[in-house]
Amino acid sequence: QVQFVESGGGLVQAGGSLRLSCAVSGITSSIYTIGWYRQAPGMQRELVARITTGGNTYYDDSVKGRFTISRDNAKNTVYLQMSSLNPEDTAVYYCNTPRNMRAWGQGTQVTVAS
Hints:
By secondary structure, the protein is mainly beta. Helix content is 0%, strand content 49%. The chain is built from no helices and 10 strands. The strands form 2 sheets. The protein has a 6-stranded mixed beta sheet, with no helix packed on it. It has a 4-stranded antiparallel beta sheet with strand order 1-3-8-7, with no helix packed on it. The radius of gyration is 13 Å and the shape is globular.
């Protein structure tokens, strides 16, 4: 059974940084495109970044230049380095395989204080 375990969230001041981790089990993550998503209160879940098996990346315009997605295939883990955070980044962050969506993990809460 595929499981995603997100971690690394927390409370940070505007302008600060956080590094999120997504530990994947049940599949060999290196053969899948992995995406980071977020869901703010009252909003739909949205894709913010994804990374292909070849290392190609995509970013939503709202995070481009501030967030960096990377992967460590040996650890079956995908990371999201977030910098220059602002209150609009406040959300629960999740990871998943966008081309074959699976059950969501519990997510990790990111709260950015102004």
